[in-house]
C-alpha cells in the first residue's frame, strides 16, 4: 500500500514509528559542500568550545586536517573543556599513535570502537559491526553530521581526481540534543558511562523553522531504522526522487519500491561514483541491479571528476535524508549510523541545487555500461556472494 504524502501528519507519524525517533521543530541546518567549507567551520566550532566536545568518526588518518583537529581538541582540553572522542577501530586503524598521545596527554577521553586486536581476533562477528557515524557536538548546542571523515582526500573542493566529493551539515536547534544522544549511545557502550547534565544537554531554543528528525542506526538495539526510513520515503513519493550515494546496493524491497514509484510516474535520478570508487567490488555489485532499475525508467549517472562519497535522498522536493548512512544492507543491519531526516521545502530546494550541480558533472549510464568486463567477473560474482556485507 502506498504511503501518505511526505508532508502529511500521517507520514510524519509513520516515520516516527519506523525510524524510532521524534521530529523536532525549530531547527536551522546549513549545507557545507566539500572540505573547503566544512573543515574550517568544524574547526571554528571546536576552538569556540566552552564546556564540552563530543566527536565520533569512522575514518580519521594522518592528514593536515587531522593535525588541526587534534591540536584544537588538545588546546581546548588543556583549558578545561571536557572532550570525548570515539574513532572506529578499523576505519581509523592507520592513525599515528602520536595523535592519540597528544589527545590523552591533554586529558581527552578517547576510545577505539571494536578494534581488531587481542581477544577480538577470536570474535570476528563482533568486529564486523563498525561505527560509521559522523558526529561532532560542541557545548550541546551546535552539531555536525554528514558523510566525511578526516583525510587529505576530503579537503579542497572536489576539483582534483584524488579528491572526494562530500557534504557535511551544521545543525542548530532542538535536534542537536538527539545528535548528542547518538554519540552518548556508543559512549555508554565503550566506556560504560552515561553522558548527562546541562554541559551536554543544555536547554535548546528554536534556531529556525526546519522540522528535523535524528535517526539512530543501531541495528542490534533497534532493528532496521534507516532502511525502513528509506522505504517509507520512496513509497510516499508522488513526483520525484533524487538519490546521490557513494555505496548503492539496494536490497530487493528497496528496488521494488523504486520500481513501484516509477509505475506511479515518479521521476528518479541517481548519481553514483565512477571507476574511482575506493571499493570497486561495491560498484560491481551495484551494477548487477542497474538493468532492472533502468528497465523501469530510472536514470543512473556516474560522477565524473573524482570519488563521490555523499549520502543524500530528496523526495518530492520536501523531504531530505542526510547523514552517514549508505544505501546498502551493511548500513541497515550491521553498522552503527546516524541520519537526519529534514522536512522543509527550502532545505530540499537547496539539496536539489547541489544535486543538479553534481549532475552537470556526471555521465548518464546505459544498460551496456552495467555489464562487467571479463577481468571484472571474479569481483562481480564475489560481490554478489557477499552483497549483504558490502
From TrEMBL:
One Pfam family per UniProt: PLDc_2
Species assigned in the record: Rubritalea tangerina
Domain PLD phosphodiesterase: 127-154, 304-331
Protein name, entry field: Phosphatidylserine/phosphatidylglycerophosphate/ cardiolipin synthase family protein
InterPro entries: PLD-like_dom, PLipase_D/transphosphatidylase
SUPFAM superfamilies in the record: Phospholipase D/nuclease (SSF56024)
Source organism phylogeny: Bacteria, Pseudomonadati, Verrucomicrobiota, Verrucomicrobiia, Verrucomicrobiales
